[in-house]
Write a structure and sequence with these properties.
The complex is a heterodimer of chains A (188) and B (300). Chain A is mainly β and 188 residues long. Helices cover 0% and strands 64% of the residues of chain A. In chain B, a hairpin with a 4-residue loop joins strand 21 and strand 22. The chains are: A mainly beta (188), B mainly beta (300).
Chain lengths: 188, 300
């Protein structure tokens, strides 16, 4: 894997070295229920770990490592209605913490002092989405109207971390709250 | 003019209301001890030259007394080229070659190998660091006052790298070393009428104007590596404003290099109670020259 050359000064044309290494391993489970009396669904679960080792650096988590990813889909169709749901649960993404700060007197701003690379994780992600759709079948076409409600439980999922200008305070950047969308579609 | 606030914005369009401030704190508001500036005289020096440093440290009660334990040190570890912070982790976390003292001004000697560590004079097999837009290289200087830490930059005079001999000679003859800018007295007005800083009415908008002489925005030559020629530039000027009470409209103001105005403006809303507020202004030119002034604002 390409990795930054940590030496200083850097030899010419050796800013990146092909000496980075990484490992990724895990297992996936997928269970699918075919349509049975109008009911269908699937369950998917992934357990994994991805690591990287930069040049002359300790092993760290990959930037997009997610230990657990669970997805459960369920749908029931009857009398022209389709009611479906989706549950998603996933480990939070790795982040590098800011453990201190000092002032850059040249540019008059604060610079962060970082902790262990990817040493913390965002909180776990969870979302329950629901959808109800009414389908109308005509001779040459069909149309439907659907109501989608995302994040039914209004979970405050943390998307990222924001720091104050001097890094003495931090806040979580929260994703979308419960969101309802009414839609109409036409199929020819 | 620029109001600088820290904001975090997510590019993902679906996230509503994701651009916002983290707390109401302002960079211009002094709520506790802080190091605001490092002034070097001369602001540009060759390896081995003596430099006198002055540290501006403040608190809500005013400028901090120099009797506090203060330590300056020249950083010895360059940062990786991929790190866009001002100094390396080693510099930020520890002091090397300290020239400690309990005086407001400290004398240091620019390390003799600074151009090899932080300038272009690396072995031919290595990639030198890039100069800034003014063609300058800088020696980081760590400043510590008790639990406070900061890093300033000392502009260093290094031999021109990768330049034809005739250009190098022309650069030697034409380049003028940086000088610290000069601040003119602060002017305060309310509704166009001059007001004394010792007699400011409560809960009013006070217009502040800060100027500098024309010669402070110096002209200098820069080696353009792409064309292998010398190009002339003019310094831009930036002012950082700090106050203990009341509210400033802008944390920072200034003039770009192609803006020939010799002053910058800000506005300060005085508190609703009688109080003595402290105001500091730090003027920086684009080649690292720094100067400051402090004022007491008496609100009656």
């Amino acid at each position: 894997l390409p990795a930054r050359n940590p030496t200083q000064p850097v030899p010419l044309a050796q800013g990146l070295l092909a000496r980075g290494t990484g490992d990724a391993y895990g297992a996936e489970l997928l269970v699918r229920l075919r349509a049975w009396h109008g009911l269908s669904g699937q369950l998917g679960y992934t357990l994994s770990r991805a690591e990287r080792r930069d040049v002359d650096a300790p092993t760290r988590l990959f930037d997009f490592d997610q230990t657990h990813v669970l997805s459960v889909l369920a749908a029931y169709a009857a009398a022209g209605f389709i009611v479906s749901s989706r549950v998603r649960l996933a480990s939070g993404s790795p982040r590098t913490p800011v453990v201190g700060a000092y002032r850059d007197l040249a540019d008059d701003r604060f610079e962060p002092v970082f902790g262990a690379h990817n040493g913390i994780r965002l909180p776990a992600f969870f979302a329950l989405d629901l959808r109800i759709e009414r389908v109308f079948v005509q001779r040459a076409f069909s149309w439907s109207i659907a109501l989608d409600v995302s994040n039914v439980t209004n979970r405050r999922n943390v998307e990222d971390i924001a720091y104050r200008f001097d890094y003495r305070a931090r806040e979580d950047i929260i994703g979308l709250p419960t969101l309802a969308v009414l839609g109409w579609s036409l199929r020819l | 003019m620029m109001r600088r606030r820290t904001a975090s914005c997510l590019i993902i369009a679906l996230l509503a209301g994701a651009c916002r401030e983290v707390s109401d704190a302002r960079p211009s508001r002094i709520v506790g001890p802080q190091i605001l500036a490092l002034e070097a005289e001369p602001p540009e020096a060759a390896p081995g030259a003596s430099v006198s440093y002055h540290v501006l440290a403040v608190d809500r009660g005013g400028s901090l007394e120099p009797t506090l334990g203060m330590q300056l040190a020249y950083c010895r570890t360059p940062k990786p080229l991929t790190d866009n912070r001002v100094a390396s982790d080693a510099c930020a976390e520890a002091s090397e070659q300290p020239f400690a003292g309990a005086s407001e001004s400290l004398e240091g000697v620019v390390p003799s190998d600074t151009c090899a560590l932080f300038g272009p004079n690396v072995p031919a097999t290595d990639r030198p660091p890039d100069p800034d837009s003014t063609g300058g290289y800088y020696q980081p200087v760590r400043v510590e006052i008790e639990s406070l830490a900061a890093v300033g930059l000392q502009r260093i005079r290094c031999p021109l790298a990768n330049a034809p001999i005739d250009v190098a000679l022309a650069f030697r003859d034409r380049y003028v070393a940086n000088q610290n800018p000069v601040l003119l007295p602060l002017l305060a007005t309310i509704d166009g009428k001059a007001v004394e800083l010792s007699d400011i009415p409560r809960d009013r908008d006070v217009q502040l104007a800060l100027g500098w002489p024309a010669e402070s925005a110096e002209r200098f030559v820069v080696f353009d590596l792409a064309t292998a020629t010398l190009a002339e530039q003019r310094e831009s000027m930036r002012v950082s404003w700090f106050v203990t009470d009341g509210e400033l409209s802008y944390d920072r103001t200034g003039r770009a290099a192609d803006d020939f105005a010799l002053r910058t403006e800000n506005s300060w809303h005085s508190p609703g109670t009688a109080i003595r507020a402290h105001l500091w202004v730090v003027l920086r030119d684009s080649r690292g020259g720094t100067t400051h002034a402090s004022y007491d604002l008496e609100v009656r």
